[in-house]
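Tokenise the fold.
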Amino acid sequence: MKFSTKVRYGIRAMLEIALNQSEDIGVFQKDIAINQDLSVKYLDHIIHSLKVARLISNTSGRKSGYKLTREPENISILDIHNAFEPGICVIDCMSDAVKCSRSHHCAAKGFWGGLNNLVIKYFASKTLQDLLDDQSLIDDQVN
């Protein structure tokens, strides 16, 4: 199972915004790109998806940055994932878009479904605040 770069970079962008936002200015896209070592052009797509999902918004003003629309403890990693992907599917047959002729008599599908549910629950149980707390611990160890 692999998660897309959009999901991975989206999580990093959200973490960067949460770490550095201020009420007045927000976090500038160029700063996110520099701090997270991301291309500004690719980050445009990430930012757009996060805005459409209403996870971030522009601060007011002409040269405005981005801020979170909710407190970090109210944004789950599943929320961020869902900004880029319609759902989590550990294998293709778990997707509603795939019709498998074996699905009604396949014990393996139940196994994969259980794993899929565990992954979804894990993503739902972790918040952006959890990542902020983890980052703080890492930063304390480095300094």
